[in-house]
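User: My instructor asked us to take a sequence, write out its structure as tokens, and then describe one feature of it. I'm not sure where to start. Here is the sequence I was given:
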Amino acid sequence: MAPILAPWQAGREIACCLYLGALVGALRALAPGRGRGAVLPDMALVGMLLLFLQSYAAGYSDAGSLRWYMAAAGFAGAAAAHSLLGPLAGRAWRLLLWPWRAGAAWLGRRCLAPARAALRARRAQKAAKKAAETQKKNLPNPPHLLYNSNV
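Assistant: Let's start with the prediction itself. The structure tokens for your sequence are:
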């Protein structure tokens, strides 16, 4: 049976698990927060946090095993750190990537816009030609005379 801990020992373990959770949450804040790009970092967050908590519980904990309050404290620390550092990291990424985004937008306006316009003109010309051919083909055909044996 697992040992019963004094309240100060449990409090120390909760503080250590909060710290580990905050460390993992801070690492998670560097990744995308929403969309498809957030699935893999979220799974890595859970796995890394559980690995850290289990190794802490096995090596340094007074209880000797992972307990529910350790996991709760770890996830609370991760959520707190991610909610505090996530918006700051998002702003930092936007500032860091601004020159590349501006360069890509300029390149798109300068080089790709004329190509797109030429492609649209070719498509419109082809559609107009096809419409003109279709008008020619829509001449009324005389009905075929069918043999009527009743007459």
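For the description part of your assignment, you could build on this observation: The longest helix spans residues 68-137. Try explaining in your own words what that tells you about the chain.
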